[in-house]
Amino acid sequence: MTTKPVLTEIGAKPLPQETHSCWSCGASFEMMRAAHFCESCGKVQPPAPSNYFAFFGLPPKLNLDIGALEKDFYALSRKLHPDLSAGSGSKEQEWSLEQSSMLNDAYRTLKDPIKRTQYLLHLEGVELEEQSKSATEKARATGEVKKQIVPPDLLEEVFELNMHLEELRINKKVGDDDPALFEEIGKAKLSLETKHAALLHELQTYWKVWDGVIDRGAEASAAERVQVRDKMVDVLNRRNYIRNLVRDVNEAMEQ
Ligand SMILES: [Zn+2]
Questions:
Q1: How far does residue 25's CA lie from ligand 1's centre (Å)?
Q2: CA atoms of 185 and 146, how far apart (whole Å)
Q3: Residue from 198, 171, 199, 197 nearest 184 by CA
Q4: Are 119 and 222 in contact (CB under 8 A)?
């Protein structure tokens, strides 16, 4: 049995070591993550149930080394490429396809800070996208206006902006042009975009708290975990609210 070093050291604490035996050559090897290919003969292994973090041998932490992730992604892409196992029996090629597709999904999700956070929240049982999707569908089905809770710190700004947008719509209808109003809306939009960007920084402060909870393992209480989870949900909800609002403003300005 030959042991190759694990592809990358991501700087996280190693996960508990497990041993895996290759289906093809029987070699057993210790692994830091789900075994995607045999370290001895290189054959692709059957996909094991895994989440995107575990797929890369990572703990479910939010601060991650994107450079190391990218390197690991390319190394795994080469090992798992379905062309390598073409004609080598449908079973192995099927596994290659499954593993490659999970690799691509995992990489695409983890490299993006927002998608990574949403995915972690999904693992924690929170479905942000679904929440808003089902609310939109329900609103469409019933013909009601989708009720969105305005983040308290935006109440005044949103109230004023909606009045200006209404004015703009009326102006357009009667063919009036009000450059001052247009400028006012542009300013409000800029302010929203600044807040949207700032929310990523706010989210990152909670990443630190979350990673601390994971690092402390059993020492951290369940209440702490839920508390920081809910903070992140709140930031993402506010961020989505602003994103939708900016989209509405853009539409109103273009018409
Ligand atoms: Zn093997």
A1: 4
A2: 23
A3: 171
A4: no
DSSP 240: H
- pTM here is 0.80
At which residue do the structure tokens 């109230």 appear?
A: 159
Residue 66 in contact with residue 107, Cβ under 8 Å? Answer: no
Mean pLDDT of 157-182: 91
Q: What mean pLDDT, rounded, does the chain reach? A: 85
Structure token pair of residue 227: 């508390």
Burial of 222 (0-12, 13-18, 19+ CB in 10 A): exposed
At residue 32, does pLDDT exceed 70?
no
Q: How far is the CA of 109 from the centre of ligand 1 (A)?
A: 30
The whole-angstrom separation of Cα 75 and Cα 77 is: 5
Contact indicator for 75, 9 with CB cutoff of 8 Å: no
d(CA 142, CA 232): 30
Q: DSSP letters of 120-169?
A: HHHHTT--HHHHHHHHHHHHHHHTPPPP-PPPGGGHHHHHHHHHHHHHHH
Whole-number Å distance, alpha carbon 35 to ligand 1 midpoint, is 11
Can you give the pLDDT at residue 7? Answer: 37
Write the CB contacts of 8 (distance below 8 Å, at least 6 apart in sequence): 68, 71, 72, 75
CA of 37 to the centre of ligand 1 (A): 8
Distance CA 78, CA 101 (A): 13
